[in-house]
Amino acid sequence: MFQSFYDTMIAGQRYLLILQGLGYTVLIAICAILIGTVLGCIFALMKVSDKKVFNFIANIYTTVLRGIPLATQLMIFYFVIFAPLGMNRLLVAILAYGFNSGAYCTEIFRAGIQGIDRGQTEAGRSLGLNKNQTLFKIVLPQAVKAVLPTYTSEFIVLIKETSVASFIAVMDLTKAGDMIRNATYNAWIPLLTCAVIYLVMTVGLTKLFGLLEKRLAKSDR
Description:
With 221 residues, the chain is mainly alpha-helical. The protein is 82% helix and 0% strand. The chain has nine helices and no strands. Helix 2 (15-47) packs antiparallel against helix 8, helix 3 (52-67) packs across helix 5 and helix 8 packs antiparallel against helix 9. The chain is elongated and about 70 Å long. The protein starts with a helix and ends with a helix.
């Protein structure tokens, strides 16, 4: 078994492909969640706005992006929108994942804002705060803590979903494993290696975010 692992991963320094793919996977996930967070905040505020035109735009965005499979969105972004512009595949993947994540973050943040007891808003208004001050000083800080578990789950799911970036030939972790499989005609070692790396990342992040939630819970007491 060790000899097979050595011949597949170590010989020819093929493990470097795994490290490169892991780097791209993490880069895509982090950049995408940052884009998704910004878009999610903007469209969530549009959804809870009193202006119907903002509601309409936000609803169209979330409906379309959540209703189309991510792999299909990725290929539309690359082959239909950005390929004629000659944009780098990695950047296209980041944008595609970012816009997709933004749709899910929108619903996460909207639910968090609307989940805060209406009495909190009324209390803020009674203290002389206007609507925006009440939203940003009272409602949003509480909503952030409320949505943290769901938000962190979105980031973990996003890491796993980067595996379809290979559809546009982005050198992510899954693509690296596939390249090693094609080169060595050994499927189980590179694929299991990728699976273990994904598992370690997701379990590690779950534990890390769990500790963060506990610290925030203690600060509320």
